[in-house]
Design goal:
Helix content: 55-70%
Number of helices: 5
Radius of gyration: 14 Å
Number of strands: 0
Oligomer: single chain
Low-confidence stretches: none
Distance between the termini: 21 Å
Order of helices and strands: HHHHH
Largest sheet: none
Amino acid sequence: MRQDNQLIVLTHLSQLLTFITGFGGLIVPLVIWVTQKKNVYRMDEEGKNIVNFQLSLLVYGIICIPLVFIVVGVFGLIALCLLSFIFPIINAIKASHGESPRYPLSLNFIS
């Protein structure tokens, strides 16, 4: 097993593809995690955190959509948008320094 902080950083930053292409923020990190979890040190843990965070954002987004009609959902969607942009960057920086990043409000779908 090899240490590859650059690939882990790239995996965190690949979540931002959703802002560029409209999709890919879940698919690309999932593919990197599944293909590299046995080859790269800490990739299994980091990949699970990323996939859990992306799935949590999806669930929270689905919950917020009907709440848009009572205005609360708009604020929820804005908060989710900010979280999904800021935390991949923060955690990529942490991963580049060898720290273990954490994502807030992340449900534990994959343990």
